[in-house]
Amino acid sequence: MRRYHKLLWTKPLPSGSLFDLSDTVGGVYLYHRSELGEFLLSSDSVIPTFTRWGFAANHPELVTEEENKAFMAISYTIGGMMVWDAYSTISVLQTVPEPTDSEAAAAIDATLTGPTFREQIVRARRGQGVFRANVLLREDSCRVTRVNEPRHLKASHIKPWRDSNDTERLDGANGLLLSPHIDHLFDEGYITFSGSQELVIVPEVRDKLLDAWGIDAGVRVGEFTAEQNAYLDYHRTNVFKHALLE
Fold it and tell me: CA-based, 20 to 30 A from 27: which of 5, 39, 52, 61?
């Protein structure tokens, strides 16, 4: 489907500029960058199938498997899918005030009942989809390297995927945007972030990798929200390799 969308929407614009799309940028459905700007395109179904909604899934007698397959054959085509500039939308949303707990809960509930929930859970494991979008609403750069180009950063779970429930796996507060090498160290527990905005590093990394990787041990990583700190408490206690500090 992505290849067909690439062919369909790569075309000359009325201005004469070519809007050519790439499908090789990790974590992005289709990508374009030129004097026109930077566009990170996402895709979603125009026609909801509802087959994965709780009610429909629990009542298979209402719609037969053959009917489902026939409907999917119609809806999951080029004509049934839209391409949109998801990350520009996210950028605009970054100016919206932080939601209250009740608003956030309602947003999560809406996500959990969506027909693409199972797909988003799978994509969240790779730091993509709804999870990445939710992290981008809160974070705009790597806390350590200061790189602020999203396509070069990973959406990393603070409380590991394996230890999180489905809500936590999609929660933007349970994520940070990190450069790939910082993501590796954080994910493996060689570094963590203290409540006083400091980078905490095990001696092995401090001695062998800081200079080689250009990591500033004294970097101030910035403030975290209460929700992020709750996840970081888990990371500090259960992921960070305390034994290597001894």
Answer: 52
